[in-house]
Amino acid sequence: MAGAAEQQIHRDPALFYWILLPITVVMVLTGILRHYLSTLLQTAPKRLPLPKIREQRSLLRSANLRMNYAQISPAAFQKRREWWIESARDGKFLADPDARGKGKPNPMSDPAMMEGMMGMMKGNVAMMVPQSLIMGWINAFFSGYVIMKLPFPLTPQFKQMLQAGVGTRDLDVRWVSSLSWYFLTLFGLQPVYNFILGSNNAANQVTQQMAQSQVNPMGGAEDPEKIFNAEAENLEVVEHYYILDGVEDRLLERLQGTV
Amino acid sequence: MANPLLEAPTNSSPATAIDLSQKASTFINSQSSWLSAIPYPLSLFINTESQEKWQTYENLFLACLRTGDDNTAYACLESLTNRFGKGNDRILGLQGLYKESTAKNDSELAEVLKEYEEILKNDPTIFSIRKRRAAVLRSMGRTSDAVTALTNLLDQSPTDAEAWSELADLYLMLGSYEQAIFCLEEVVLVMPNSWNMQARTGEVLYLSSEKLEGADQLRLLSESMRRYCRSLELCDDYLRGYYGLKLTTDRLLELLSTGKKSQQSSSDPVKGDLAPPSIDAVKKLNELATSKLTEIVRRSKSGEKGWDGYSEAEIIAARELLDRGTQKIER
Amino acid sequence: MLDERELATRPIVQESVQHNARTVSNIRALTASLFGVAAGTLGLESFPGFIFYAVGTAVVSVLIFAFKAESNPKAYFWRPLQDLWAGDMFGGLMSFVLTWTLLYNLAKA
């Protein structure tokens, strides 16, 4: 595997104290900084006016009814469904009954919307700025020479990236410059953060990115009346069954063996 | 076993509450250890925050109020206030709770009530205070006012399971079973997996079936039995569930064996109600519940590991129920 | 495909699933780092190193199975095969590579 001509490069041990260690320490510190920054930048959710709360929670109630309908008897379900659909059609839940039929509001004009987008931006800034800063720092100070040897072989395609600025054609890809150490720490430090900051931290941007992609910033921009009508339609097509139907047989079947 | 510090003491027996409140001062002292004494820039590296910590503070606060240790309760409240700020909804509710429980007579309580109304006038969206207000109204005996307060709250926030179950309780106090059942169904819709609420619904159904006769009673009783079955399906070895199951199946066996004829027509397919259970299944369930209850009582008496979480009062009640059953057979 | 009724009668609660997954991934990350330290100190290279990791995680899986899941993974994981045995095999790989590389270089230099 290694072949006869395994390259040996004698490295100065000072490389560790002056390059590897600083990069690692800086990476850990940035993780912690990012964690506190994102905690700091988190804006508390704004208090909604009462009618708006009512509108949202009424919608939520219908969603609950639609999802957990099996928990109540058919008669009870029917009663609730009729009542809810009728009230929704009359617009009884709307926060602003006068604004019915005016159509979709412009997301830019809505201050709440703007706030949501600002929150997104802040999150992105807290993520991107330290990352690019550190990459710039490493490129400026520590490029142009190899500092370590990877314990596993890589294909030559990585040469470009991992040996940037070295420019020796025949050097084994396993010899890499400081930038690759940066990448390794970027992906591998999660357990360290977990240990320092507790497992709910916001230090690692990889996990952060995953969390952020799930939030839709334009979620609330629809006309509330339309949402209610859609919800009413969804509720109408629900086919009811009762979870208590045959529960005694299920229970008996399950517990027969244990007693 | 779950940590008793993390469970709300409102559900625990008085003995555990006392035990908890005695632990309170040691806990508070333990929080000011060397970890939190680290100077500012270094303290950033250590995370002393956790949800459990503040949950513990809140539970200790409640336990201390219950046992009358107002000073320690105040210390807990103070640390909570320092952490979350005066304006926090939950803190406002807890502060109100403290004032309520230190109020000595009704006039002081009325003053607290007035304070709540003052807060709500400024900002009617603080639901914790609105709930406290309903609770004060209830404890002052103004039940119908409490009902109105809660129905108003629920109109604006119809997904609040806590308020729904409180309202169900109030209706039960007033004897309006149908409304209570409606509220409990609403709770179950919000939290479909809560076995205790399923069993609670069964309890109310059982109570209301006592008032009725004939086909209606059978219908409610079998639904009550099925609720208990569901709660047992969700949670193994749930004592209340087995207790209720035994109670309802006992009654059902009586009903099913006496008037066979009239019951056949009771299941009305148009309304979509379930047919009453077969007498076989009921018998089997009854046997099952009896044997399970006996097992639970026996094991918890001998203090077997993993079986010691049951409340003493419930165990005694279960024993009584079992004894009643055996007496009947002897007769 | 999931049977909706089956899911309603035997619900799977999101919080519990998350809690279990987090516990497992914490254990994995920590042990993977320790394996990296071991592999680096032993001076393992390329394939032996990865095999060391694979064997190590397999042992950890068995330990989780035996102690954390009390030999009954069905009660703790929705799909035991994915969530416990196979799925998280690579969760700790990056941590392993990090400590492996670091210790390998420290030991060789």
UniProtKB/TrEMBL annotation, chain A:
It comes from the Eukaryota. InterPro entries: EMC3 (IPR008568), EMC3/TMCO1 (IPR002809). It comes from Extremus antarcticus. It is found in: Membrane. It holds the Pfam family EMC3_TMCO1. SMART domains: DUF106. GO terms for cellular component: EMC complex. It is a multi-pass membrane protein. This is ER membrane protein complex subunit 3. The EMC seems to be required for efficient folding of proteins in the endoplasmic reticulum (ER). The chain crosses the membrane at residues 15-37, 125-148, 179-197. The lineage of its organism: Eukaryota, Fungi, Dikarya, Ascomycota, Pezizomycotina.
Automatic annotation (TrEMBL), chain B:
Residues 107-193 form the EMC2 TPR-like domain. It is found in: Endoplasmic reticulum membrane. Its main location: endoplasmic reticulum. The keyword Nucleotide-binding does not apply. The keyword NAD does not apply. InterPro entries: EMC2-like, TPR-like_helical_dom_sf, TPR_EMC2, TPR_rpt. PROSITE patterns: TPR (PS50005). Pfam families: TPR_EMC2. It comes from the Eukaryota. TPR repeats lie at residues 161-194. Part of the endoplasmic reticulum membrane protein complex (EMC) that enables the energy-independent insertion into endoplasmic reticulum membranes of newly synthesized membrane proteins. Component of the ER membrane protein complex (EMC). Belongs to the EMC2 family. This is ER membrane protein complex subunit 2. It comes from Extremus antarcticus. The gene is oca3.
UniProtKB/TrEMBL annotation, chain C:
Keywords: Endoplasmic reticulum, Membrane, Transmembrane, Transmembrane helix. One of its GO terms (cellular component) is EMC complex. GO terms for biological process: autophagosome assembly; protein folding in endoplasmic reticulum. It is found in: Endoplasmic reticulum membrane. InterPro entries: Emc6, EMC6-like. Signal peptide: none annotated. It is a multi-pass membrane protein. It comes from the Eukaryota. Belongs to the EMC6 family. This is ER membrane protein complex subunit 6.
